[in-house]
């Protein structure tokens, strides 16, 4: 018997998002990723005695922007608090965070799965500083003999977004996270580069008997940084908890870590409660008062959000699938929109963008924004195909050359003499030669075997090195054989 026949999953997610500022939350150190260890640090972010923090205003701007995009209420009065705990990556032995008066509360995100459309509540979103990074000698902390600390990440501004425990299945969790990350990308609150740790997920999950009202005992698995890891973690952890319950045991409320290589969660420590952190107001920072005019100024900077863009694409006549592919990657959607300005056949354009162009991007592990090929060049290529200057088949080759070199399509067509042959006299001579060389195919066509025309068109296209106008070639063949 599957555990789903006896239990229901209850899940909430804490998402830690690095905000897209150039400097840290309380000092002027760089937030750039990838610097040499312990070089983006200063006495403030290292917690030296006597230093005082100064709040980065852009952190507040981005927090407000994210809150508005997530349908949150923006607090007129909020404050920072000290979250006290000891860990090697926390040089001050406390984290400056927000506790009882966060900047954003009571939001929601709408998700869509195969089963239903559903709102997932956002309990709160609050600002805080990131901790440093432990560099382990082994694959995980559990298998390491020693660990080193890199404090470059210490003080990088975070927005922690806490969902309600509203998700009841793995697809719902993934839909929520995908929608959340899309919103953060579209608002440019964060670059959301999960491979660099810009977004990290803490998964809180429990099981309860089907039909029960209360929640089961939950575990929290920390610092997952990909949707794939979240899916695998949930599948493992729910199965593990079900086995414990089915065996008559009780799930322990604890913090766990995810072992990517083994595909399992491992116990780290007993789960802390709020009182364990001994929160108290940060004495070195004044409370934050946010006027309505400040909030409204930020509201005017909100872009078209994913749900709005998806609806616009559907109104253009795109399919649900194509709209979804575009919206899922903001750089690709931006590329499509810019190309659409110069080539307004949306359905034709989307087939090329989500087909051959996306294939090239994936093969080279690039986003559309990183490609040497501009949307304007792409639109020019579409125009050349639409006008019959080149065929679609040759267009694919031109696209690959454009992608590699960044050259304009018209220049590539000229340099390689790829222009389509549409002169009837030239094509008629080749058609006559092909018909004379393949009398059996002619007889087959006249006998009603329609497939024969395809063979003959192929012979003509080969003779023209792919440059014959396919529609014209087809018409000339038929006229000659009827």
UniProtKB/TrEMBL annotation:
Q: Which UniProt keywords apply?
A: ATP-binding, Ligase, Nucleotide-binding, Protein biosynthesis
- Upper taxonomic lineage: Bacteria, Bacillati, Bacillota, Clostridia, Eubacteriales
What is the protein's given name? Answer: Aspartyl/glutamyl-tRNA(Asn/Gln) amidotransferase subunit B
**Asn/Gln amidotransferase domain: residues covered:** 334-481
Q: Name one GO biological process term.
A: translation
Query: Which purpose does this protein serve, as stated in its record?
Result: Allows the formation of correctly charged Asn-tRNA(Asn) or Gln-tRNA(Gln) through the transamidation of misacylated Asp-tRNA(Asn) or Glu-tRNA(Gln) in organisms which lack either or both of asparaginyl-tRNA or glutaminyl-tRNA synthetases. The reaction takes place in the presence of glutamine and ATP through an activated phospho-Asp-tRNA(Asn) or phospho-Glu-tRNA(Gln).
UniProt record similarity statement: Belongs to the GatB/GatE family. GatB subfamily.
E.C. code: 6.3.5.-
Question: Gene3D superfamilies given for it?
Answer: 1.10.10.410
SMART domains the UniProt entry points to = GatB_Yqey
The highest taxon in the source lineage is: Bacteria
- Answer whether the UniProt record assigns the keyword Protein biosynthesis to this protein: yes
Name the catalysed reactions.
L-glutamyl-tRNA(Gln) + L-glutamine + ATP + H2O = L-glutaminyl-tRNA(Gln) + L-glutamate + ADP + phosphate + H(+); L-aspartyl-tRNA(Asn) + L-glutamine + ATP + H2O = L-asparaginyl-tRNA(Asn) + L-glutamate + ADP + phosphate + 2 H(+)
Nucleotide-binding among the record's keywords?
yes
Gene Ontology molecular function: any one? glutaminyl-tRNA synthase (glutamine-hydrolyzing) activity
Cite the SUPFAM superfamilies for this sequence.
GatB/YqeY motif, Glutamine synthetase/guanido kinase
Which PROSITE patterns does the protein's record reference? Answer: GATB
According to its UniProt entry, this protein's organism is Acididesulfobacillus acetoxydans
Subunit comment for this entry? Heterotrimer of A, B and C subunits.
**What range does the record give for the signal peptide?**
none
Task: Enumerate the InterPro entries for this protein.
Answer: Asn/Gln-tRNA_amidoTrfase_suB/E (IPR017959), Asn/Gln-tRNA_Trfase_suB/E_cat (IPR006075), Asn/Gln_amidotransferase (IPR018027), Asn/Gln_tRNA_amidoTrase-B-like (IPR003789), GatB (IPR004413), GatB_Yqey_C_2 (IPR023168), Gln-tRNA_amidoTrfase_suB_CS (IPR017958), Gln_synth/guanido_kin_cat_dom (IPR014746)
């Amino acid at each position: 018997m599957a555990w789903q026949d006896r239990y229901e999953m209850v899940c909430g997610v804490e998402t830690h998002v690095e905000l897209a500022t150039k400097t840290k939350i309380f000092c002027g150190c760089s937030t750039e990723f990838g610097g040499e260890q312990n070089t983006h640090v200063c006495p403030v972010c290292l917690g030296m005695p006597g230093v005082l923090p100064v709040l980065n205003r852009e952190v507040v701007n981005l927090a407000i922007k994210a809150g508005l995009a997530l349908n949150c209420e923006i607090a007129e009065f909020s404050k920072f608090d000290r979250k006290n705990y000891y860990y090697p990556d926390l040089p001050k032995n406390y984290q400056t965070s927000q506790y009882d008066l966060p900047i954003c509360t009571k939001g929601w995100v709408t998700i869509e799965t195969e089963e239903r459309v559903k709102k997932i509540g956002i309990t709160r979103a609050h600002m805080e500083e990131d901790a440093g990074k432990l560099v382990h000698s082994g694959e995980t902390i559990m298998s390491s003999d020693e660990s080193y600390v890199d404090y470059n990440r210490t003080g990088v501004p975070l927005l922690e977004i806490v969902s309600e425990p509203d998700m009841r299945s793995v697809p719902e969790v993934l839909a929520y996270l995908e929608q959340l990350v899309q919103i953060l990308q579209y608002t440019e609150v964060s670059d959301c580069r999960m491979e660099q740790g810009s977004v990290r997920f803490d998964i809180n999950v429990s099981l309860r008997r089907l039909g029960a009202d209360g929640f089961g005992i939950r575990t929290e698995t920390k610092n997952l940084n990909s949707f794939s890891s979240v899916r695998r973690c949930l599948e493992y952890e729910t199965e593990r908890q079900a086995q414990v319950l089915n065996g008559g045991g009780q799930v322990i409320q604890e913090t766990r870590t995810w072992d990517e290589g083994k595909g399992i969660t491992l116990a780290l420590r007993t789960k802390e409660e709020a009182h364990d952190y001994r929160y108290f107001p940060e004495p070195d920072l004044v409370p934050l008062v946010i006027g309505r005019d400040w909030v409204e100024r930020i509201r005017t900077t909100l872009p078209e959000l994913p749900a709005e863009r998806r609806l616009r694409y559907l109104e253009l006549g795109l399919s649900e699938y194509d709209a979804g592919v575009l919206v899922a990657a903001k750089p690709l959607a931006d590329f499509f929109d810019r190309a659409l300005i110069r080539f307004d056949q949306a359905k034709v354009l989307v087939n090329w963008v989500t087909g051959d162009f996306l294939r090239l991007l994936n093969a080279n592990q690039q986003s559309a924004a990183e490609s040497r090929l501009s949307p304007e060049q792409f639109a020019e290529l579409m125009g050349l195909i639409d006008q019959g200057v080149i065929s679609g088949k040759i267009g694919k080759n031109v696209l690959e050359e454009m992608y590699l070199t960044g050259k304009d399509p018209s220049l590539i067509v000229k340099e390689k003499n790829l222009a389509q042959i549409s002169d009837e006299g030239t094509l008629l001579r080749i058609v006559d030669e092909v018909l004379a060389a393949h009398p059996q195919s002619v007889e087959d066509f006249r006998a009603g075997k329609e497939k024969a025309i395809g063979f003959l068109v192929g012979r003509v296209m080969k003779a023209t090195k792919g440059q014959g106008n396919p529609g014209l070639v087809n018409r000339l063949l038929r006229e000659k054989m009827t």
